[in-house]
Automatic annotation (TrEMBL):
Family to which the UniProt record says this protein belongs: Belongs to the flavin oxidoreductase frp family.
Source species, domain of life: Bacteria
Keywords: Flavoprotein, FMN, NADP, Oxidoreductase
Name recorded for this polypeptide: Oxygen-insensitive NADPH nitroreductase
GO MF entries: oxidoreductase activity
InterPro entries: Flavin_OxRdtase_Frp, Nitroreductase, Nitroreductase-like
Occurrences of domain Nitroreductase (ranges): 8-159
Amino acid sequence: MNQTIETILQHRSIRKFTSEPINERQCHTILDCAIAASSSSFIQCVSIIRVTDHEKRLLLAQYAGGQEYVASAAEFFVFCADYNRHQQIYPEAKLGFSEQTLIGAVDAALMAQNSLLAAESLGLGGVYIGGLRNNPDNVSSLLSLPKHVLPLFGLCLGHPAQSPEIKPRLPRSLVVHENSYAPLNREILACYDQHVRKYYQHRSGGSKDMSWSEQISGTLNKEARPFMKQFIEGQGFSLK
């Protein structure tokens, strides 16, 4: 096993940071690693907003549902699908296709993962912030995002002030299918549910007693930001 694989397998979300800044050289390296990610058809349809203004950080933390580490992290990036740049280059560009939305989301995720892996390889930590989609209109207004730019998620980065346990992921046997899709193996799922339950009990000191199946049942039993469809279309995405 090499150092790259060890870094990947040791991933855990960091939500508490020291006050130490990330130096500019490290920050530029992280951003260069993001830009080096694969790009579908070389469209390069992602923009990153590096938010350094403290007042904007405080508002973004509020918009994300009170996640204070958005304000306290050394760096905060917002990853956006961006076809506005392309329209400026080629005003006749045919935009608004659902496939373009998918490409933007996939490419943004690839860039963000490169960013976090690069940061972790430097001894830093971070956490993704999907909560920005709680208030997409406010986020877009605050960051002056024009039409054809879609804010997808944020990324906090900084020097870790905690070392949480690694959260157990689904076993390979439930995730990887060979040649065709396989039915759910409930015996393996039950073992995994017990593993997750023990993880939560240990992490919470016994105050959280929940399996993964129970967790996703609660999550998928409620609306998932139903306002996003209107917002996405309003930004000129997924119109056809």
